[in-house]
């Protein structure tokens, strides 16, 4: 039992220890489902909060604060019993020793669950990785928000209209839900907010464009939903370029696969994800997209006490031969099933196979404009938009956050003015050091 | 008129141009009072938002988000006419040319108003400046919040209780309103929140201490208010060390003027301010605390068309021979008077002298605990606390922000749990780069 304390201050116990890496939809749901079921749970995440990713685009477009969609894990787990949260990064699994090697030390486990999700996939384009903005975390979203606001301030200082346009234009790579929702929200800012706040700029020159390699936007949804979404985007004045790849961005100019190019400082990359990395598993453990291959109980191929759930996992089933979509629903369902199975395994019962139940897909393009593919049928427009709002409001955790988001949405809906356009830079990055120091002497004398 | 456009894209005009440096209480009030009065107004600030400083301590203690007390200037000035806001830092006044030199170029003025406020005064202690946390901006407040949360996470990893205490302890230099309000809020976190979220730590060992050089806290208030505040602080378990200076902090240990020392990673410096610096004025323009000496019309001594208002100014009057206190009330009143006087000066009327009207002082120490010195008398306890809450709620700008703050306060009051404990680090500072890169190859292959 001694080695159980390899991470200082986590008490040893006679209970079986489940170490869960990642507190996203999958990891946090699993943690909550296992509480009080006779395990010692250790939850690790690189952040001290859980984040409701579907609304990140509203953080990027100044509609919500990060705190409205982020949940401090210690608060979620208050008075939850034998559960220990630590901020840590997973470095390696030492499966032979039943230990996970982390940034804060080694940790013994009885069961280890990989739930670290996915990250932006730049498909090896290093230069894109350096110049483009990604959209996977609250920090990413704030960076996009700040970058757009800074570019608008910069545009005001340009006397050459062409250069001003370069600062105003926004190019979005990828026409999935993230790209579409972001483009729609930005188009509404261009329509309702920027004209009031930047009357000195010619906003008719501002271009918002989506570049999508596939022949349609929202390729994961039905053709009908795609067609409606395209119509809505065009209605909002978003340029949609299908069957078009972005090949190059040097920080000012975007070069496209058709040979043309567009002047734009801002390039937002939402063109795909790859599973987060972990060392120590054999090469054959991985499948498409860097995802970890699992059986119907979410167990990895090489070790019986290691599991993977959510976006990081790849379960090939007769119904989903290419694995489930990397969405919140699949992560939550797998977490619930795994919690049941761990309890069963612990008491020697037979584990159950996982089967994904697709509850439908939703995407919002703008005010009163959304599309939904539901098991009962396809809806669009205002009805889909109301449904989208309700689903997101009720899926998000915490009464206070629901109230805050509801208040924000209601306010924004009636005022046409989400108002969080604050350029808050971390202190050491501000210009404070550039201030003249001369008066210091005067002041001190 | 040509030179009027030295900053690109600000149109020339036949109106007299007022350049206002700083959008704090003084600068923003002046801007709003001058709207529609026949001037071209140019407002400059290093941030794109106005900030309600009195509630910064609640940002630092995770009770409010920065956005709840920050106001995007472009939003405040929507549809306001001939007013131009730019993010800029003032480098120098070229009074001979009637120009101000800024980080974004030169700018002609007819009237120039310095309203850049004050910053933390470390009294020349460089080492303190490097190791201590200050409390003058939203970035400062977030840095304090993050620093305390990080230290608690660190304390969890320590097996040596002495080292854990070093991470938990908090030393506050200065017993003014900022220090007192911060100490009270932290003491309430220790009582209501930390025990639920850090059950593994021995919080009885956490020390929160105020070090004040003067013989009493809240020295600007009445002796009676000081005595009540001291009692309240002690009731909350805050150590108050009067007539004690902090002489040294090496990042782990605080050395005091009485020769003793205290183990603490966190040192918050709220011991004084010095006026912000500006180059180009003659040495005799400055008075005590680096403040700019002004006459009864807030005009600086050397130039008839340059003014200073708010914390950066020093007006010595018979009633206030050492100048007015550096508080919001004085800044707002001076801004209103100067707006009137500029209109009068423009139409050849005689300007009026400024006279400060002290409306009273308030400070809150904790839940139901506050002190108030009012013209009508002194109050304390619950009544003062309610008054404090109402005054702050109604002084803050914007219906939405009032609603948000009211919602937050009500929530926190009844749940004893302000919940914004999210460690959101700017992206390039996160540990993301430490993640193993090996799977990238697998994913791309």
What's the CATH first level of the largest domain in chain A?
A: Alpha Beta
| CATH-assigned fold name of the largest domain in chain A | FAD/NAD(P)-binding domain
| Strand order within the widest beta sheet of chain A | 5-2-1-9-21
Number of helices in the DSSP assignment of chain A: 13
Low-pLDDT runs of 5+ residues of chain A are 1-5, 428-445
The beta-strand count of chain A equals: 25
Average pLDDT over all residues of chain A: 89
Quick recap:
The structure is a homodimer of 445-residue chains. The first copy, chain A, has 2 domains: 2-46 and 88-120 and 273-346, FAD/NAD(P)-binding domain; 126-271 and 367-415, FAD/NAD(P)-binding domain, CATH 3.50.50.
What would you note in describing this structure?
Two copies of one chain form a homodimer. Chain A is α/β, with parallel strands linked by helices and 445 residues long. Chain A folds into two domains: 2-46 and 88-120 and 273-346, FAD/NAD(P)-binding domain (3-Layer(bba) Sandwich); 126-271 and 367-415, FAD/NAD(P)-binding domain (3-Layer(bba) Sandwich), CATH 3.50.50.100. Chain A contains 13 helices and 25 strands. Chain A has a five-stranded parallel sheet, with helices on one face. Chain A has a five-stranded parallel sheet with strand order 11-18-12-13-14. A three-stranded antiparallel sheet of chain A has the order 6-7-8, with no helix packed on it. In chain A, a hairpin with a 4-residue loop joins strand 6 and strand 7. Chain A starts with 15 loop residues before the first strand and ends with a helix. In chain A, 51% of the residues are buried. Chains A and B meet through strand 5, helix 5, helix 12 and helix 13 of A and strand 5, helix 5, helix 12 and helix 13 of B.
């Amino acid at each position: 039992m001694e080695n159980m304390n390899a991470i200082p201050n986590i008490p040893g116990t006679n209970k079986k220890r489940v170490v869960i890496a990642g507190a996203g939809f999958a990891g946090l749901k699993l943690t909550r489902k296992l509480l009080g079921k006779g395990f010692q749970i250790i939850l690790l995440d690189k952040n001290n909060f859980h984040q409701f990713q579907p609304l990140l685009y509203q953080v990027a477009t100044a509609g919500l604060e990060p705190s409205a969609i982020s949940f401090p894990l210690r608060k979620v787990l208050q008075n939850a019993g034998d559960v220990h949260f630590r901020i840590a990064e997973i470095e390696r699994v030492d499966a032979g020793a039943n230990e996970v090697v982390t940034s804060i030390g080694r940790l013994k486990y009885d069961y280890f669950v990989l739930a670290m999700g996915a990250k932006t996939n730049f498909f090896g384009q290093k230069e894109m990785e350096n110049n483009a903005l990604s959209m996977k975390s609250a920090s990413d979203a704030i960076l996009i928000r700040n970058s757009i606001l800074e570019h608008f301030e910069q545009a005001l200082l340009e006397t050459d209209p062409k250069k001003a346009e370069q600062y105003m234009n926004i190019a979005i790579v990828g026409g999935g839900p993230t790209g579409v929702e972001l483009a729609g929200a930005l188009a509404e800012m261009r329509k309702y907010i920027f004209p009031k706040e930047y009357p000195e700029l010619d906003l008719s020159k501002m271009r918002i464009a989506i570049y999508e390699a596939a022949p349609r936007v929202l390729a994961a949804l039905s053709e009908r939903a795609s067609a409606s979404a395209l119509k809505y985007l065009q209605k909002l004045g978003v340029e949609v370029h299908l069957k078009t790849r972005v090949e190059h961005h040097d920080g000012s100019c975007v070069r496209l696969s058709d040979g043309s190019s567009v002047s734009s400082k801002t390039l937002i990359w939402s063109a795909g994800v790859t599973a987060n990395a972990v060392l120590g598993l054999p090469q054959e453990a991985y499948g498409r997209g860097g995802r970890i291959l699992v059986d119907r109980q979410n167990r990895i191929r090489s070790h019986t006490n290691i599991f993977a759930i959510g976006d990081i996992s790849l379960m090939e089933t007769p119904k989903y031969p290419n694995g489930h979509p990397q969405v919140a629903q699949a992560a939550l369902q797998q977490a619930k099933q795994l919690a049941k199975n761990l309890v069963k395994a612990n008491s020697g019962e037979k584990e159950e196979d996982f089967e994904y139940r697709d509850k439908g897909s939703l995407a919002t393009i703008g005010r009163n404009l959304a599309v939904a593919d539901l098991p009962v049928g396809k809806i669009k427009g205002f009805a889909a938009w109301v449904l989208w709002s309700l689903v997101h409001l009720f899926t998000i955790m915490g009464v206070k956050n629901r109230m805050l988001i509801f208040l924000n949405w209601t306010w924004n809906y009636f005022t046409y003015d989400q108002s969080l356009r604050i350029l808050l830079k971390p202190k050491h990055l501000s210009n404070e050091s550039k201030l003249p120091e001369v008066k210091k002497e005067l002041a001190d004398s």
